[in-house]
Structures are given as structure tokens and as C-alpha cells.
Design a protein that fits this description.
By secondary structure, the protein is α+β, with helices and mostly antiparallel strands. It is built from 10 helices and 41 strands. Helix 2 crosses helix 3, helix 2 packs parallel to helix 4 and helix 3 packs across helix 4. Bound molecules: adenosine-5'-diphosphate.
Length: 626
């Protein structure tokens, strides 16, 4: 039994191809994790890195509490099952299953016990004397599973184990592997390009594309709340419909206008998490509706479509069509107007009929047309709040508060501004008070819908906040973006600072041993790095590491002001946000913000931090090294 931790894992192949980027996941003991995505997205590479068959370029891999990056595959206590079965053709089933154990010099008696037990579980007891060539694909895959099973590993790694089997056998083996996982109570990691396998087997699924993780979630969350258009399209069959639309808010309704002319009106409540910039009627967005969430009628209500094909499958019917009432010029590439509807069978429709499609507004999705990221995040990224500047006060949310000095710097004579307020910037305090309209649990956090007249202000609140409460709060001003219309006047202050520097080593003689010490060199600040990180950087970049420039990332909270030593900086500015104050300091080309208190007025300052708080990034390729 084992949990696994993959922390910022990267794989760059020798030819420079970056196959896996910044892959992080905590896998709990006994989970069934599926890596899914189209061919070439990096799933097998990740699995092979876990198995130890492929080296890890950067990042840490833990099995249990042990860092296994450099551990031999045989010592990792994992067993891998391959798509190709990888059986020894000249050996019997029994010998194939016993082979690994014999290599480990296990007593024959124990081997026999283990093989017989596994053979029984997999129902291959009658084939133990056969050679693989005399067996069917399904039976061979069972032998391959058996060979993993007898090793009693902490973690099972399965690489597309069913893709050589026919559809019926695949379905059967799917349930068998799921049952096996239940009875073995071990951790399974399973790679497939088949979304049905992923959805039916995984406790959690990692969806990948082009080497990047797109979303890690439970099957139902992937289906109901896909993070982007790619995940939305990949999960579900037939694929989700996507339409180019615009959205216009009209009081408590929102009008969805389709490119071909139709429009549909839905309650605002259904899209209250969509940022208001998308609700002005001028911005193209992508509407996603699953075929099973559409219905058809003939009475002229809904989206007009012409039926181009009907697939009657008995239990369900898939209706394909084009929006509008004519087909236009035929092109296979023209997907924009395509619509697919999944319904139970009905005999009153046929190809070329003009019918009307309706959808349930509770089941729709919206994506940004450029980034393709959802516009309906479980926790919205920002609240937009309009404010009026009144002398040295800022009027918003029904109150007037002191105008932060940093805001007045950028405002000029501007009186109307908009604040983008992330939910985490709404903090306990007494400046504002709004009624709680609703509280929703989102991934162990409480999202409160605060009633702000014609819209909601979304805030993260503690467990004791309930619907109907008056919620008192303040704003963390430094975490807000300030806009004039769509023009950004002042950007929120991030939590991390970056410094550029180099990396060096010195060799010291200690008790007759030569010991290497490594340093992060930021100008004249030599910060000793943990030896393991030094070796890590050296193993990734080779001896070039002593010539390269690195980006050192550090959380601002971890930067200290010291009396002497550290990095001596000039203070070039003081940024006052009211509730928070920062000094902008500079040394050479490095410029950063540090936290300071109200009385700070020095012209130079020495700053220091611990090397254990520093993250090191390659400046040559976008990669976190440690
Ligand atoms: P998947 O399992 O998702 O199909 P892989 O992990 O096998 O994808 O491959 C990810 C990417 O890495 C692909 O673009 C593939 O061509 C590339 N790749 C795989 N192995 C190597 C290798 N040994 N050298 C260079 N590139 C590789």
C-alpha cells in the first residue's frame, strides 16, 4: 500500500522535446488514478518515470515517504503491465508469472503459492502449462496482470492494457480490473486514451494535452465542471456541442445570440459566475451543451436546425444537424453550425426535417473564445465592482472608504473606476457589510454569494457563515486590479518575487574528504544551497549550470530585512495600499517589493532569505528545477 507524490515533474527528452511539464499530484493510498489524453500528450512518459523506466528531468517523485527519483525500477516496489503484454513466448504461463520471483531468489514453494493465488483470482488456473501463443489476447493480458500481481507491489502501473482487445472483451476486462483494484486495496495508475475507460475506472482522472495537465478531478466533476473546452470535448460521447455566441444581460435575464441568428433567453442566475465583461453583448464566447442535454420539438420554439443524419441505436437516438434551415455550402470542415442531439428514440422525425432544439440552462457551459478556459469557475477569479472617487474617499459597495495612496497615484482626474476583486482578497474587517444570499461548498472551501443589489460578490468565508447573515469585511487593496473601463491602471501585487542570479560551487576539504558546497549567487549575495538541490541542478544542466542564469523565486513573506549581510539594495519607492505597505528595492538589474511597516523610511536596506524557501527556475526553458 502506498501513496505517491509527484511534485513539479518535467521530462525533456535528449532531442530537446519537452514531453511533460510541471506535473504535480498527490495520490492517496488505494486510489485508482487514470491518465487520459490523446496520443503523444505525455501519459506513458509520466507512467514510465514513475516506474523508473525513464529518467526524471526535474521534480521530485515520492512513493510513500521515499524520494525515488534515482532508485532502480526493481527497488521501487511497483509493477507495470504493458499494452503489448511483454510475455516471454517460450515460457509457459506459470513460468512467465514465476520468472520475476525466481530472479529475486524467492523459495519455489512461496512462488507456487503466489502464482496459484493470482491464477485463481484471474481465472487462468487451467492455462498454467500453456505458452502465450496458444492463448487469446484477453487471456494473455490476464497473464500479464498475473505477473504483476504475484509481486504484491505497492503500486500497479498499467499502460493501455486493454487497447489490443476487441470491444466486448475490453468492457469485460474493465470490470475485472476494477474488481481487482477493489480486492487488492492497492494504488493503481492507469494510462489510456479512451475516455470511457477513464470515466468508468478512475477514482480521479488526470486529463493531459501536449505535455500539460489540463484538469485533475473526479469523473463526475470532469463531466459537470470541465475546466476548459478541451476537457469538455474530450469527456463525454458524442462530444459536447460548441457554438459561437454572444451574451447580453437584460436585468434578471441573459440573451444568448447565436452566429446564425437565433437567440435564447436564460435566467441571469444560471450565469452569475460569468464575469460581467462577457455579458455586454459584444464579446464572442463559446457555448458548450452536451448532446444529452438537448431536446427536440417541432413547434417552432428554440434553436432552428435541419436534420442531416439520424443514428438509431435502439436505446438512444443520435440526431445530427445544422443550425438554421438550410445546409449552405457543404464542407466537412465547417463545424461551426453543427449540432448533435441525443434523445430516446422517436419516429416523428426524419432527415431534412426542420426542428427546434432546446437546452436546460442548468446544464450549459461557457468558455473564453481565445483561451478556451471556462467562464464559470467553481470559484470565480474576480468580482468586478464599480467605484466612484470622491476626494480622498472611494465609494463602493454602499460605503465610503479611504482612497489608498497607490490608487490615487494612477487615477489622475478619473472618477469612475472598476476594481477586480478576487474572492481571497475579501478579508474579515469592518469596512463593508453585505447580506449572505447563499453559501456553497467548493473543494472544502465555503463560497459565499454576498448580495450586492443586481449581482453577487463572491467571497471565501469560514464555516460559521450562514445564509441570511450580515457579513462584515474589508478588502486587501494590494490584491486588487484597478481598471478604467477595460484599461488596467494598476495591477495587483503578486505573492512571489523573482531575482536573477547564477549558481556556483566550491570544494572544501573536511576531515580528509573533499566536500562540495553549492551557492545561489544573486549579485554579491551568496546563499548556500542544500547539497541535494545543488546536485539536482548539476544533474539537470550539467556543467553548464555554472555558466547559466537562473531565476530564483521567493515568497515575499519569507524575505527578511537584516542589519547586515544579505543583499544590499537601494530603496527606490514606497508603495502605500493603506492596509499594506511595500518598499520597492533595487540591486543592479534586480528589482523587487518587500513588506515594510508604516514607519519605514530608509534609503538602503539589506534583505535576506533562507535558501530552503527559494525555488530555482531555468531561464533557458520554462522549467522549475527545485
Ligand atoms: P502518450 O503516452 O500520451 O501517447 P508519450 O508519453 O508516449 O505520449 O509521448 C509524449 C511525447 O514525447 C510525444 O510527442 C512523443 O513523440 C515524445 N517522445 C516519447 N518518447 C520519446 C523519446 N525517447 N525521445 C524523444 N521524444 C519522445
Amino acid at each position: 500500500m502506498a501513496n505517491l507524490k509527484l511534485s513539479h515533474i518535467y521530462k525533456v527528452y535528449e532531442n530537446g522535446h519537452k514531453a511533460v511539464n510541471d506535473f504535480s499530484i498527490d495520490i492517496e493510498d488505494q486510489e485508482f488514478i487514470v491518465f487520459v489524453g490523446p496520443s503523444g500528450c505525455g501519459k506513458s512518459t509520466t507512467l514510465r518515470m514513475i516506474a523508473g523506466l525513464e529518467s526524471i528531468t526535474a521534480g521530485d517523485l515520492f512513493i510513500g515517504d521515499t524520494l525515488v527519483n534515482d532508485m532502480e525500477p526493481k527497488d521501487r516496489d511497483v509493477a507495470m503491465v504493458f499494452q503489448s503484454y511483454a510475455l516471454y513466448p517460450h515460457m509457459t504461463v506459470y513460468e512467465n508469472m514465476a520468472f520475476g520471483l525466481r530472479n529475486r531468489k524467492m523459495p519455489e514453494e512461496e512462488i507456487k503459492e503466489r502464482v496459484m493465488k493470482a491464477a485463481k483470482m484471474l481465472d487462468i488456473e487451467d492455462y498454467l502449462d500453456r505458452q502465450p501463443k496458444a492463448m487469446s489476447g484477453g487471456q494473455r493480458q490476464r497473464v500479464a496482470l498475473g505477473r504483476a500481481l504475484v509481486r504484491d507491489p505497492k503500486v500497479f502501473l498499467l499502460d493501455e492494457p486493454l487497447s489490443n482487445l476487441d470491444a466486448k472483451l475490453r468492457a469485460q476486462m474493465r470490470s475485472e480490473i476494477t474488481a481487482l483494484h477493489k480486492s487488492l486495496k492497492t494504488t493503481f495508475i492507469y494510462v489510456t486514451h479512451d475516455q470511457v475507460e477513464a470515466m468508468t475506472m478512475g477514482t480521479r482522472i488526470v486529463v493531459m494535452k501536449l505535455g500539460y495537465v489540463q484538469q485533475i478531478d473526479t469523473p463526475m466533476n470532469l463531466y459537470n465542471m470541465p475546466y476548459n473546452k478541451f476537457v469538455a470535448g474530450f469527456i463525454g460521447s458524442p462530444q459536447m456541442n460548441f457554438f459561437d455566441v454572444t451574451l447580453k444581460r437584460e436585468k434578471d435575464k441573459v440573451k444568448i445570440s447565436f452566429a446564425q441568428g437565433d437567440s435564447v433567453t436564460i435566467p441571469y442566475e444560471n450565469v452569475c459566475k460569468v464575469h460581467e465583461n462577457y455579458l455586454q453583448g459584444d464579446r464572442k464566447v463559446i457555448l458548450g451543451v452536451r448532446p444529452e442535454h438537448l431536446t427536440l420539438n417541432k413547434d417552432g420554439d428554440g434553436l432552428k436546425m435541419i436534420i442531416t443524419n439520424i443514428e438509431r441505436l435502439g436505446n438512444e437516438t443520435i440526431v445530427y444537424g445544422k443550425l438554421g434551415d438550410h445546409l449552405g455550402e457543404f464542407s466537412l470542415k465547417d463545424e461551426g453550425n453543427n449540432i448533435t442531439v441525443k434523445i430516446v428514440d422517436r419516429d416523428d422525425i426524419k432527415v431534412d426535417d426542420v426542428v427546434y432544439a432546446n437546452f436546460n440552462p442548468d446544464k450549459i457551459h461557457f468558455f473564453d473564445s481565445e483561451t478556451e478556459v471556462t467562464l464559470m469557475n467553481k470559484i470565480p477569479n474576480y468580482n468586478s465592482v464599480h467605484c466612484k472617487v470622491d476626494g480622498d474617499k472611494l465609494a463602493l459597495l454602499g460605503r465610503k472608504v479611504a482612497l489608498p495612496e497607490m490608487f490615487s497615484r494612477v487615477l489622475g482626474s478619473e472618477k469612475d473606476v472598476t476594481l477586480a476583486i478576487p474572492p481571497h482578497a475579501i478579508v474579515p474587517g469592518k469596512d463593508f457589510s453585505l447580506k449572505v444570499a447563499k453559501v456553497e461548498k467548493v473543494d472544502k472551501q465555503n463560497l459565499a454569494y454576498l448580495d450586492n443589489g443586481d449581482s453577487y460578490l463572491f467571497a471565501l468565508v469560514s464555516d460559521d457563515v450562514k445564509k441570511g447573515d450580515d457579513y462584515s469585511f474589508a478588502l486587501a487593496n494590494e490584491k486588487l486590479d484597478l481598471y478604467k473601463g477595460e484599461e488596467l491602471l494598476l495591477k495587483a501585487v503578486g505573492d512571489q518575487e523573482s531575482l536573477l542570479g547564477t549558481f556556483s560551487k566550491t570544494e572544501v576539504k573536511e576531515n580528509n574528504d573533499r566536500v562540495l558546497h553549492f551557492f545561489y549567487d544573486i549579485s554579491d549575495y551568496h546563499l548556500e544551497a542544500a547539497a541535494e538541490n545543488g546536485y539536482k541542478i548539476n544533474s539537470i544542466d550539467g556543467d553548464n549550470c555554472y555558466k547559466n542564469t537562473y531565476r530564483y523565486g521567493i515568497d515575499r513573506d519569507k524575505i527578511r530585512i537584516v542589519d547586515e549581510g544579505g543583499l544590499k539594495c537601494d530603496v527606490v519607492d514606497c508603495l502605500d495600499y493603506g492596509n499594506a505597505r511595500f518598499a520597492k528595492v533595487r540591486h543592479g538589474d534586480n528589482e523587487l517589493l518587500i513588506n515594510v511597516d508604516k514607519d519605514f523610511n530608509a534609503s538602503t536596506v539589506n534583505i535576506a532569505f533562507d535558501s530552503s524557501d527559494v525555488s530555482v527556475y531555468s531561464t533557458l526553458i520554462d522549467m522549475m528545477l527545485c
